Amino acid sequence: MIRAFKWWIFLAVGFFLNAMLTVWPVDQVYQWYRPQWIFMFVIFCQILQPTYFNPLVAWGLGLLIDSLLGTPLGEYALVCAVIAYLTSLLRNSFFRRPFWLQIEKILLLICLGQILILWFHAFAGQNPQTMWYWMGSVSSCLIWPFFVLLFQFISHLFKVVPFNVGRNSY
Amino acid sequence: MIIRTSYQDIRPSGGAFIIAILASLMLLIASRWEGLLPFSQFLTRIVWPIQYAVDLPTQIKELAAPLLHHDDHLAQINESLQHEQILLQAQVQKLRSLEAENQELRELLKSVSSNRESFSEGRLIRTSVDPFMQQILLNKGKAHGIEIGQPVIDSFGLVGVVTGLNQYTSQVLLVTDPGFAVPIQSVRSGERAIATGSGSGELRLNYVPRTADFIEGDSLVTSGIGGRFPVGYPVGVITSIQHDPSTRFTLVGIDPVAKLDQLRHVLFVKAAPVLAEKNKEEPIVEEPALTKATLSSVPKEEPAPKIEPAVAPVAKVELAPKVEPVIVKSAVKPATKTAKAPVPKIEPVIAKSAVKPAIKTEKVPPVTKVEPVIAKSAIKPEIKKAKKSSKKITETVAISLPEQPTAVALFEPEEMQPQLPEPIPESAPEPVFESAPVVAPVPERVEEVTPEVIHEQPPVVDLTEEAS
């Protein structure tokens, strides 16, 4: 019970930080390079705690992001749910794998998320005419190791993970 | 880098995934449904602390700005502001004179002034994260009286329109968003069109005919059509006009005058709808009660229309200026009562279809007969026209009669009763035109049948001869 409570606290704090990073004002030029923080957080949580985190929780986080960004309700929610589900399918392949293979999967998942968002925008008539749109996925991959470091540290603070770190864990 | 977690072979939760997908699709389908608004507002309340936290450094910076600046810098800013103020004051003086002139012209036209907007200031919290979503977030919301659909301007021109509302923040769709459209008008030529956002930092006019009078450099302002945006706010300047030979239309590119990339402080415009103002000034009263007070307020005599005897039958539909609808409606009923009183039988003259509609409408029974010479259909179109123009006013129909006293517009029953010695049965087969006034709804304008129209009418029929 306490463990679950700590997990939810960690989720709330992590979401708050990622949402802040998502809407933090930056110069128009650097908007393209903004990592997809929320997608990264969903992937991280799905790998970290699959018992508590599932596509429905990811859907709830996406809904809040929709509200934060002003996109139609359900847009980011759907994408987050899809990413969470695919991560849960790919979760076992994250273990005992070299670093670049992890990056590869992260790139795949975040690109998929961006494609879905792009489709939604295209439906609304907002079609980007530039390849800079995909820089968000690239920057997300590059920042992924540091992201994992940071949030693993935070999860240790909330004592979310170390209870069941077994011999197969890395 | 690896995530320190346990290797657990947990099956993916397909059920939760399907539920999430279905819920998302339902939300997307119902995104235009107004019933979803409370749920949306609930969500924005949850994420409001995030927006506040993001905005906090800016607030702190603004608060600390006076402490951080040196005196020299402040003096420099003060000097430049004073210089700017002098320039602005000069411009305001010119604008005042223009406004006074505009007001005077509007009064001449008897139209309602449209310059009745109120403003409230807002500050930018953040721009859209997505470069393709031309939206901004402002620090005023429902708690400050902001409403969805309010236009937002900066010191240069139109910025956008409020599309989302939270308790303390509001989301504004910028003019350059593809989902934005505003009716515009060229200042130079007065040509009207609808400008839409292109999604790439500019606006454009679609489906503009080739004959439309737009040239590069034209300033475009809001035309006010549609009632969403007030009239006269600058929208942009035409920067390009492309004639595509394969289409019938011209593509016009517009550069927005508002500094969308440098926004900091903006104004929410709250326009008073013109129609509502008019209705306030002239309240529509339906079926008012007939009271003595209303009767006493009826003008006893309206100036009779001056009609030259030599002219062929002319129907004049004249309004009683500034007659309140309350008065007019009540003025009809006494006429009905008067008709029941004894009326001297003079000569039976039958007014045919020309007078019928008005009499039937206002339930005026047969009254004193005279010798009118009436064109059959000369009055009818005018009366119909008058009815269409306004329902809440009455009309006075005055028929010119050679060698006959001119008709009077309105009368009171008490004055007329002693002069009417002989009654006329109510079951008279045909309504009879009276020498006394016939009271009917009065339109707002005096409209005369022009001679051309009269010539087109059927020939004059002397009803006296017919009767004899």
Walk me through the structure:
Chain A contains 6 helices and no strands. Chain A has 170 residues and is mainly alpha-helical. With 468 residues, chain B is of the alpha+beta class. In chain B, 31% of the residues lie in helices and 19% in strands. Chain B contains 11 helices and 16 strands. Chain B has helices spanning 14-29, 37-68, 71-108, 274-281, 292-296, 325-340, 356-362, 380-389, 413-416, 451-456, 463-467, and strands at residues 117-127, 135-138, 151-153, 158-165, 170-174, 181-186, 192-197, 203-209, 219-222, 234-243, 249-256, 265-271, 315-318, 396-399, 438-439, 447-448. At the A-B interface, helix 1, helix 2, helix 3, helix 4 and helix 5 of A face helix 1 and helix 2 of B.
Coarse morphology of chain B: globular
**Strand portion of chain B:** 15-25%
In the predicted model, the low-confidence regions of chain A spanning at least 5 consecutive residues are: 162-170
Radius of gyration of chain B: 34 Å
Report the major sheet of chain B. 6 strands, antiparallel, barrel
Structural class of chain A: mainly alpha
The number of strands of chain B is 16
Average the pLDDT over all residues of chain B and give the rounded result: 67
Short description:
The complex is a heterodimer of chains A (170) and B (468). Chain A contains six helices and no strands.
Give the topology.
The complex is a heterodimer of chains A (170) and B (468).
Chain A: H1 2-23, H2 37-48, H3 55-69, H4 75-90, H5 99-123, H6 135-157
Chain B: H1 14-29, H2 37-68, H3 71-108, E1 117-127, E2 135-138, E3 151-153, E4 158-165, E5 170-174, E6 181-186, E7 192-197, E8 203-209, E9 219-222, E10 234-243, E11 249-256, E12 265-271, H4 274-281, H5 292-296, E13 315-318, H6 325-340, H7 356-362, H8 380-389, E14 396-399, H9 413-416, E15 438-439, E16 447-448, H10 451-456, H11 463-467
Antiparallel strand pairs in B: 1-2, 1-12, 2-5, 3-4, 3-12, 4-5, 6-7, 6-9, 7-8, 8-11, 9-10, 10-11, 13-14, 13-16, 14-15
